[in-house]
Amino acid sequence: MFSKPTKSAPPRATGAPESSAARKPLPASLIGENVAVNGDLTSDGEVQLDGAVLGDLKVGHLAIGETGQVEGVIEAESVEVRGRVAGAIIARTVKLYATARVDGDITHEQISIETGAHFAGRSLKRTVAVQEQLSLVAAAE
Question: What does pTM read for this prediction?
């Protein structure tokens, strides 16, 4: 009479991976102004960089603050630069704000540069789709 009903686990398909929509979003990682990293940095999520990194970065989204500095190659989906970068940037979207100083090539699909930003290097359009089409044509022959 006073017993609790038993709860059954919801049915789950065996062997099926959980959907990415069910995954909890990761909080942004912060590298503070007083932090210096010597070495490569990798993250699937968002990184706010206010300190210094001497090494390569491979992240989902990178925001470099006014005090942030990178000396190395950056690979990301999107990059926002307010600080300094000495090295190449490879990203889908790149935004250089007025306080940015970038010395290196930028490979991108979209780029925006505010008045006052310093950029010394080449702006290279990312053409992944064209390379994939060429490999499909070559494979069909």
Answer: 0.73
Phi, psi dihedral angles at 131 (to 5 degrees): -65, -40
Give the side-chain half-sphere CA count within 13 A for 32: 2
- Judge whether 113 and 130 are in contact, CB under 8 Å: no
Task: Check if the beta carbon of residue 65 is closer than 8 Å to that of residue 81.
Answer: no
Q: How many CA atoms lie within 13 A of 45 on its CB side?
A: 11
**Helix, strand, coil in percent for the chain, rounding step 5:** 10, 45, 45
Ramachandran class of 21: left when φ > 0, alpha when ψ lies in -120 to 50, beta otherwise: alpha
pLDDT digits (tens, 9 = 90+) for 77-105: 999 999 999 999 999 999 999 999 999 99
